[in-house]
Design a protein that fits this description.
six-stranded parallel beta sheet, disordered N terminus, Methionyl/Leucyl_tRNA_Synth, four-stranded antiparallel beta sheet, EC 6.1.1.10, 593 residues, Isoleucyl-tRNA Synthetase, Domain 1, ATP binding, Rossmann fold, alpha/beta
Amino acid sequence: MLRISAFRLLGRTGASRLSLLEDFSLRHYSSDPLGVRDDTRDARAYFTTPIFYVNAAPHIGHLYSALLADALCRHHRLRVPSAAATRFSTGTDEHGLKIQQAAAAAGLAPSELCDRVSAQFQQLFREADISSTDFIRTTEARHRMAVQHFWGVLKARGLLYKGLYEGWYCASDECFLPEAKVTRQPGPSGDLCPVSLESGHPVSWTKEENYIFRLSQFREPLQRWLRGDPQAITPEPFHHAVLQWLEEELPDLSVSRRSSHLHWGIPVPGDDSQTIYVWLDALVNYLTVIGYPNAEFKSWWPTTSHIIGKDILKFHAIYWPALLLGAGMSPPHRIYVHSHWTVCGQKMSKSLGNVVDPRTCLDRYTVDGFRYFLLRQGVPNWDCDYYGEKVVKLLDSELAFALGGLLNRCTANRINPSGTYPAFCTTCFPSEPGLVGPSGRAQAEDYALVSAVATLPKQVADHYDNFQIYKALEAVSSCVRQTNGFVQRHAPWKLNWESPVDAPWLGTVLHVALECLRVFGTLLQPVTPSLADKLLSRLGVSATERGLGELHFLPRFYGHPCPFEGRRLGPETGVLFPRLDQSRAWLVKTHKT
């Protein structure tokens, strides 16, 4: 395992200003680029987004959910190259009263509305390079079979009973609410109207005979599950919020509606007078995708990671785990929760006319550019803000100038006329700072760079494991800045290939910079797949050399051969990322829908 001990910089230049605090044993070449022996490399992983409601066109919040899941999935594939080891599902939620009402308002049959809007989600995800292995629609026959089987299991285990439900129902949120979760707000006419305390959406009083799930039996089992696994729900504030909810009474849950009131859904088996509650229907999609009720699903379910928005946390962290426990199954392995996107400081809303069209953003900022922005700026713990100038400033700074400029510098014909990965000179840059001799040119800051990039893959992997993709990108960006500082500090354009004194150091500077770029390109694959492919192709890195298992940074520094040394760079791939500030004339702050 690579061990890089801490050191202190006492000055601005010169290896003599490096004070070792411990043995700086960089000579120990790591056969494990992640810094640990990862026993999960052969494990399966199953990632899911929520299935998205088809009552309206997709917005950037939907895309953000899909991108988070996509990046987690792609990073896992870098660790476990076998395609059979990873599954990733997304899809559309197509049943419920809200769909029924939206279709009627549009003068369409519910199936027509579902086909139309589901196609919009599928097109968006194709254009955004979402690498899902399954797109499920809850109107599919396979899903209907899975839902009805799941219902039958709950009924056979004595967890469903028929009773009179009387209380508030929010059609917009498709959920039942106790009196404590309802407040009154002035309506259009000025009269006080009942609304959901959490969402602000209107609610109506409902009284009907439904099937009811014995949710109250699961309060303590849910508490034991969460207290026994602090990472079950991430980030921690959401884990804490669910435990707080479970301190309150957990009433039984109505899990069906009268078919005369809600006909657009899956009928209760053996009772056509009732339609299965849309949330029970929707949640079972996670099982449908992995083959439920066939035995195949059992090998995938324990590896499940749900990626959800905070607005649907209660459904995924209380109702769903309780239903699973009731059916004799375990709760999801992980529930990753993210917050929402605002636009210029305001909540996205049709009434405000500030809903951002994600397809317009993909076209305006490029696919990789907008992927990078959302994942770099999106912090799961709190809401994040979108506005056009912010996107341009970030992408120009970090992708066009810092990363693209670094690649251009190191591959320019004037500096690298041979178009190769130059040789690394161990005399110019010895593996231990104390060994720098008369011909050595490496400075303290250069060893700091090597240390930072050597530990970057492990750091990035830890951030992914902790659902902090934004921190992973921040760490990469920091190392890109350090590498640019390294190149600027040693100014290879001032060195001469014809000079026997300059040439070894010039080659070493380029070699180190190209090795850093190879690490950056590899680690950016989950977030900016096309840009990373362009970068790695320019460096001459083949498709079989792009996994984390092959990411051995700067092997010549550790006394090992480098497979890239002397290899020709790949063909010119053009500008890595285009400058966006040239297009400010047609930049608009928000896309009105």
